[in-house]
Specification:
With 218 residues, the protein is of the alpha/beta class. The chain has eight helices and seven strands; from the N terminus they run H-H-H-E-H-E-H-E-E-H-E-H-H-E-E. The chain starts with a helix and ends with a strand.
Length: 218
């Protein structure tokens, strides 16, 4: 595990429960209000991802950087044959397993402690997602290429937009926690997707994010 991944693992182990509460809303009314205002695009990218990952029955999904399991468990609840979630933070994986048990889908979910480049690919997936993943990857091309290699239909991913007021605020805030964060222009995303082998793609601006669908077979 690289030094960068190790520092990010430490960060996300510390932040795991706080991150979970963004979706569970187990906060004060005021904190939930702030999330709805300032993290609106996080909830909207969830809707985008579900829409562009459907249909779910009889499909296999890979969730790269699965976090607290929100996406993976929802896929299983909607009938996915199996969902594999990988993450570099053990505390996130524990939350994912707990959430799967709460919704009685643990038999169709597997959560593994690894990053994608270290993951031994033993099967292919119909759909792979990477939501909130490329924010923290200095060199996204190998990871994006690996996602395409692992996927037979499409990938659904998100990138934080360059030149928004949030970008410098996040960069400074996370730098104090030794967690680098990276931002993207539409042109860079188009180039990355094309270089990784996605000849057909959909890019939608959602708040301060770009949400992207890359089609494996064009």
């Amino acid at each position: 595990m690289s030094t960068e991944i190790a520092s990010q693992s430490d960060y996300w182990n510390d932040e795991a429960d706080s991150f979970r509460k963004i979706y569970s809303h187990e906060k004060s009314a005021f904190s939930n209000f702030l999330d709805k205002v300032f993290r609106k695009d996080m909830y909207e990218r969830f809707v985008f991802t579900l829409h562009h990952s459907a249909p779910f029955p009889d499909k296999k999904f890979l969730d790269v950087g699965c976090g607290s399991g929100k996406y993976a468990v929802e896929f299983a609840r909607k009938g996915a044959q199996h969902v594999t979630g990988i993450d570099i933070a053990e505390n996130m994986l524990e939350l994912s397993r707990r959430l799967a048990e709460q919704h009685s889908v643990q038999d169709r979910c597997t959560f593994l402690h690894t990053d994608l480049l270290g993951y031994e690919l033993k099967e292919l997936f119909d759909v792979s997602i990477g939501i909130g993943l490329f924010d923290y990857i200095a060199n996204p091309f190998p990871v994006l290429s690996r996602m395409r290699q692992a996927t037979t239909d499409r990938v659904v991913i998100s990138f934080p937009r360059l030149w928004t007021w949030r970008a410098p605020v996040r960069k400074i805030r996370l730098a104090t926690r030794r967690c680098p964060v990276y931002f993207y222009s539409r042109k860079r995303i188009e180039r990355l997707m094309s270089d990784a082998g996605f000849s057909k793609m959909k890019i939608e601006k959602i708040g301060k994010l770009f949400c992207v669908v890359g089609y494996v077979n064009g």
